[in-house]
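Justification of computing resources. Each target in the renewal requires a structure prediction run like the one illustrated here; the chain below, 215 residues long, is used simply to show the kind of job we budget for.
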Amino acid sequence: MRIVYDNEAQTGFKSDWGFSCMIEMGDRNILFDTGSSRDILAFNLQQVNVESDVFDTIVLSHEHGDHTGGLDAVLHPGMRVFVPSSFSSNFKRAVAQIAEVIDVALPQEIVPGVYTTGELGAWQKEQSLVLDTPNGMVVVTGCAHPGLETILGVAATFGGLYGVIGGFHSFDKLELLRELDLIVPCHCTAHKREILELYPEKTKRCGAGMVLELG
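Resulting C-alpha cells:
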C-alpha cells in the first residue's frame, strides 16, 4: 500500500486536505479515495511513476470533496468504481458516462482478498475497506464518520484484525486500539498526537509518499 494523498507529505510529494491510497493485491491495482485535487493527486502519482490507467478499481468512501475531488485524474473506461448507494444520482450518472458504477449497500468482496464494510452510518454514510493480509485483516478508512469503533466491529466479522489505516475523525476510545499491531492515523484524525504517544511502537506517522508492506 502507498499513501498518495494526505494532510502531510514526505519529501518530494505535495500535501493537501484529503486522503487517497493505492493498494496492490496480486495483479489488481485499487485506488481508495482520490483526495481533493486532480492536479495534486496526479502529481503525487507521477512521483512514484504510476500512470492513471494502472488502476482497474476505485473505491470511494463517501461523497465529500476531499475524497472524491481528484477522481478525474484517474477515471478511465473499463474500470469499476464502487460507491455507497447513498451517493447522489448526479454523481453516479457523471461517473457512469466513463466507467462502470457499482452501488454498495451491504458488506461484500470487491476483488479477492479485499472487502467493503458496506454502507455504514446514519447522517453521513460511508464505506471502508478490509484487506486480507498474511498478518490478519487491515482496515482502511476514509474519514470514519460512522465511528471507528463501528467500522472495526464490522471489519472483525471478516477475521482477526491486525491494523487500521486512514482517517479516524473524532474517535476517542483509544483503548480499543490496544489489540491492534499496526495503527496509521491519517487525514482527519482529531487525536493523532495522543495515539502516537499512547502506542509509539505500533503507530506510524501518515503522509503522502508513505509505503506500507502489509505482508
